[in-house]
């Protein structure tokens, strides 16, 4: 009878590479004898096991390989196991520390940064390993013998914190970049990631989907206008357009019009992108989150005016055509001007791309919002494109109107409300109204506000004139919040004294 010891090392390696054999099985197999320990000391084996366990990380690792990183996959698997063990230790500690708290603030969870922050000693891929393990815990059936309900409860708290903590770093990095590198699709992806902490959303995937649309436009353009000058452009130039907001269009009016016409055909006729119902009273059920979040819009091919405009603008930019999102109090324009560097231009220089009706190019007089009456601004040609911050704020406003699923209405509504208030505060950290609203929300649900109070003190110190309206308001807010904290601490102390006295009796 043939036993496994009689098999060659090559055949054993093939068996171990099968998807049905997990990482734990390979480790246990290697612990049986020196020969098998040597068999599993094969980085190609661990390379396969890593991608079998985390298939969605292939793109991340391929990017690291392209960047000439020296990756030892066996060490990567060891790091993942270490992350898993550290996470479960933290979840157990959270149960001991926060058993008397219903809601946790960021300051309560700062110690968890060591789980996933590379600058605090964590492995470079720890964030992905930790999030994956949290999602595994949350998806376990309560009837499973491996399910720990306490770990599930605190995993929900920790998941939101880790996602938001990382996104704050990404946002600060994004907003500190030059304006030319602040891409709208990247800002929209941050919003989608913030709103959906329980979903893996990679900006790399959003990039690829937009790249694919741009490539489809090029293929169609070649069939219709094979002599278009875009086909003589270098790969380096296409790369520059992809990663930078361009200051001016690169083509003649005729060539730009051809690109935009083909882009419209590809986006709305071939790929069947469509606009969602407008706001009330056109849509009595209210907006849907999937029509606002860019990952869902690219997947389902349906979106509202902001998300569709971002998709259109992002693809057009990849092809050397500048389009701008222009914000009015009641609506958006996606505008196009053949040449943005002209100082003297007439009324016909700007055109309106009707993003909600097939992407047709219209003049000012054809705009359905202004037809038959004066344009709502003094001059249609004198306006500036919306900034990435303004885009995010508009998306927040739209998401605040979304009704959560009925079966989880109350709980989900509370989570979303807090998340959107925290997102607004991240985008506008010096907005006193945003801080005030978030503080009051925290106080109402007994969440630690010490972090926000500290930020208010920093903001107050930044004012040279302490008698200004803004400074006076901050002082009043601090007095109110600090008084509340003192009263609450006093009441907590009385409660503890009462409990001790009651136990003695």
TrEMBL record:
InterPro entries: F-box-like_dom_sf, SirB1_N. It comes from the Eukaryota. Pfam families: Transglut_core2. Residues 252-396 form the Protein SirB1 N-terminal domain. This is Protein SirB1 N-terminal domain-containing protein. It comes from Cardiocondyla obscurior. The lineage of its organism: Eukaryota, Metazoa, Ecdysozoa, Arthropoda, Hexapoda.
């Amino acid at each position: 009878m043939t036993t496994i010891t009689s098999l060659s090392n090559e055949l054993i390696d093939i068996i171990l590479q099968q998807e049905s054999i997990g990482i734990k099985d390979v480790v246990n197999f290697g612990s049986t004898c020196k020969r098998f320990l040597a068999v599993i000391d094969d980085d190609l084996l661990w390379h396969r096991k890593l991608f079998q366990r985390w298939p969605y990380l292939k793109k991340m690792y391929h990017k690291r390989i392209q960047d000439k990183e020296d990756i030892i996959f066996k060490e990567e698997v060891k790091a993942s196991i270490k992350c898993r063990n550290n996470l479960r230790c933290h979840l157990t500690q959270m149960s001991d520390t926060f058993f008397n708290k219903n809601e946790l603030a960021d300051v309560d969870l700062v110690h968890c940064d060591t789980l996933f922050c590379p600058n605090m000693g964590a492995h470079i891929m720890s964030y992905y390993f930790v999030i994956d393990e949290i999602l595994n815990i949350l998806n376990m059936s309560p009837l499973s013998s491996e399910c720990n309900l306490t770990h599930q409860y605190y995993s929900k708290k920790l998941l939101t914190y880790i996602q938001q903590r990382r996104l704050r770093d990404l946002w600060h990095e994004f907003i500190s970049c030059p304006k030319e590198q602040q891409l709208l699709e990247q800002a929209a992806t941050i919003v989608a990631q913030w709103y959906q902490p329980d979903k893996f959303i990679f900006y790399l995937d959003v990039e690829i989907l937009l790249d694919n649309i741009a490539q489809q436009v090029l293929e169609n353009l070649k069939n219709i206008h094979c002599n278009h000058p875009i086909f003589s452009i270098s790969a380096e130039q296409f790369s520059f357009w992809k990663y930078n907001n361009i200051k001016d269009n690169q083509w003649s009016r005729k060539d730009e019009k051809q690109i935009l016409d083909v882009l419209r055909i590809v986006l709305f006729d071939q790929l069947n992108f469509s606009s969602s119902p407008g706001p009330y009273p056109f849509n009595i059920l209210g907006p849907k989150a999937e029509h606002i979040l860019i990952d869902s819009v690219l997947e389902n091919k349906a979106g509202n005016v902001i998300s569709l405009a971002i998709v259109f603008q992002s693809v057009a930019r990849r092809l050397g055509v500048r389009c701008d999102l222009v914000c009015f109090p009641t609506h958006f324009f996606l505008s196009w001007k053949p040449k943005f560097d002209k100082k003297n231009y007439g009324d016909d220089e700007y055109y309106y791309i009707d993003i909600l009706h097939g992407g047709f190019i219209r003049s000012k007089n054809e705009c359905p919002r202004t037809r038959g009456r004066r344009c709502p601004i003094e001059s249609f040609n004198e306006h500036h494109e919306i900034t990435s911050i303004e885009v995010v704020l508009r998306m927040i406003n739209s998401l605040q109107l979304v009704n959560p699923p009925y079966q989880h209405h109350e709980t989900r509504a509370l989570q979303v409300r807090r998340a959107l208030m925290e997102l607004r505060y991240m985008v506008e950290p010096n907005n006193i109204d945003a801080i005030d609203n978030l503080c009051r929300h925290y106080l109402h649900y007994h969440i630690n506000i010490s972090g926000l109070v500290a930020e208010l003190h920093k903001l107050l110190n930044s004012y040279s004139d302490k008698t200004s309206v803004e400074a006076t308001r901050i002082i009043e807010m601090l007095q109110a919040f600090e008084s509340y904290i003192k009263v609450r601490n006093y009441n907590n102390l009385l409660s503890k004294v009462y409990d001790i006295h009651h136990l003695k009796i």
